[in-house]
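Annex B. Sample input.
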Amino acid sequence: MLSSSTSTITFIFRYSLLQIPNFVSFPSSSSLHSHSEPPSLRQVDEAVDSFTRMLSMRRTPPIIQFNQILGSLSKTKHFHAAVSLFQQLQARGIAPSIVTLNILINCCCGMGRMTLAFSVLAKIFRMDYHPDKVTLNTLVKGLCLCGSVEKAVCFHDRVLAHGFHFDQVTYGTLINWLCKTGHTSAAIQVLRKIPRHGIVPNVFMYNSIIDSLCKVTLVSEAFHLYSEMLARGISPDVITYNTLIYGLCVAGQLKEAIDLLSDMVLRNITPDVHTYSILMDGLCKEGKIKDAKNVLAVMTKHGVKPNVVTYNSLMDGYCLVNQVNKAKYVFNTMAESRAFPNVRSYNIMINGFCKSKMIDDALNLFEEMHRKNLVPDTITYSTLVDGLGKSERILCALELLEKMYDRGCRPDVRTYTIMINGLCKEGLLHEALAFLSKMEDNGCLPNAVTYEIIIRALFEKGENDNAEKLLREMISRGLLQG
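Annex B, continued. Sample output.
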């Protein structure tokens, strides 16, 4: 620990000036009210009234009673209200405790005001308090939530060098956010270093890194950490297994995924709906529908109710193997299990119908979405436009495309290309050229296929000048070697 509070404050100020915007004095309650919250719930009003009554008492209650109210406001994310009450506490000359100031730091972090949070830390030192693990954990988490993960690591290193100590919560937070921001190698380095600080790694830390590795298909590295967990006596939980099963499914190692499910059961860890749904999705993506149905049977046998994700995976699998009618049956019966179709459910079925040339069925589902107040997304519109275009129902596709624009959904290059192809097949070349221009105006650049379709159609109609103009444009964009 530093020899004096003054030198510690100097360190904190030096850190803040280098890493975070300059300190400012703590704001008045009026400046905070300029960013006030929506109208509070009744319990918040009651908390504020209680706080005000306590302030007006002849004998001021102990600070712990004020802390209880401030803490409850902080926990319910009414940060501005809590800070405003703290200002009243200050105005009455009531000295805050370290708990009060920790609550205040949490509020500042919750508002994204890290400069103010570090000002409160400086106040802690000025009052000859020592920051505890809650103080430091809150600051590290606040920096991470603000997207300043590297600053959080830097803050950790500097504070550690000055004799302060962190706990599992801090390291769990750092590792989790490093993984979330793609710094998996740095997270592993932190994991390797923490035993020397007297901290024992826990399952949450390992799960964060294993999840990050599996998402980028580094499954063998993930299993290396899994083995390390077991060797250290750290018991994997259902999240560990779900993550590893997902990684194996993405890597196409379905047999190993099924074996891991068995290992999970042997270790007395009960698979949940996510476990089964992940495995079913992996099997369905490989067209192994029978195996997926077996997993569904095992799932229901053990009393685990399928959810909408489970059914979506099964429907997607049926559509993949061109068994759209079986997918339709699942879609129509899933509500019986209290699993109601969502936008993805409709997208899967609309895509399946379009691929099977059942365009009217797809359009009927599109209309059903509106009746059920489900908002179609870009995938819904693009799938339908593609299906209508390929079925040579160009006018209907154009009408739908206008609706897509009106709702702020942006078509991709594939959707535009299919529309241009449909227009060319109908002999509507000038409309196709106008579409090409509109495509670029909307920030979607045509690819080689787009150009080839329209250039071929122009040559076939004898519009050689327009065709050659597009050829030159295609070459200039590096889509064709001159």
